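lol ok so funny story. i was supposed to be doing the assay writeup but got distracted and ended up predicting the structure for this chain instead. priorities right. anyway since i did it might as well share w the group, maybe its usefull for someone
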Amino acid sequence: MGGVSLPADLPVVDHHCHLSPGGEGVEAARRFQREGGSHLFLTTHNWDHRPLRSVGDYQAQFESIEQLGRQIRANTLVTTSLVVAPYPVDLLAMADTLGLAKAVEIQMQGLDLAGEWVREHRAVALGEVGWPHFAIAEERGTAAREVFRHALEVAHDVGCPAVVHCEDLTPDGYQSLSEVARATGLAPDRVVKHYARTFVPATARSGITPSFLAKKECVAAALDDRGPWFLETDFLDDPRRPGAVLDIATVPRRVAQIARDRPERMDRLRIPFVESVQKLYGFTPVRRAEAST
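and the output, tada:
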């Protein structure tokens, strides 16, 4: 933390990252802790980039991140929360190998499985769910939207947030997403737009909760936002792309910079690190070192 002292009761939360059994894994969590981080929301993904062929492949994927979460908690003071679902872009490779109808079926089964994990308190949200962030054939786009609607229905049924993967959204995009959520019965503020790269104010988000990529300009703009909102790195832990999307240490480093340069704004960080977690996930993040004293 570069010698900067942070409030002892302020958790530092990265709301969206990926850690991989074949990457840094626990060591990345150690780096996060050394910089002042306390909580990671770990989101599953397709670690080995191979086409998935059955819901059993998703079960194995979820169990892999669960095991990594246990290792992090056993070897660091970082608290982990799991976010699980079939990655939306998986649909394309699965359709190539299995056919589109079978790919949709398996993804929906994977979403049902993710819902069971939430019911069993093994995960706190469904994610990433959504649709590919790039142009695809109309038939596949329609199928992806069908799977997404099922994801929102599952999130509504089990009472958890849905963390959405899609293109960066304009105010019109937020409105459209809000309408889809409402149509399934899921409250828009239970829908989290992951990887929000462009700051859109609360008045133009139609109730959707953004998880802002922790770029300097996004963080600066978000400090004046009423919330709820989160900060994330979307760290991939991929040896082929070191440090992408943002390094795991970025969120605590941003906090240290604010503590050093704008200490009067530190109270605003309770919105992403405490209040928004309370509102969407129903628990209060507490640093484990504090809890053990």
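The chain has ten helices and eight strands. Residues 153 and 184 are 6 Å apart (CA to CA).
back to the writeup now i swear
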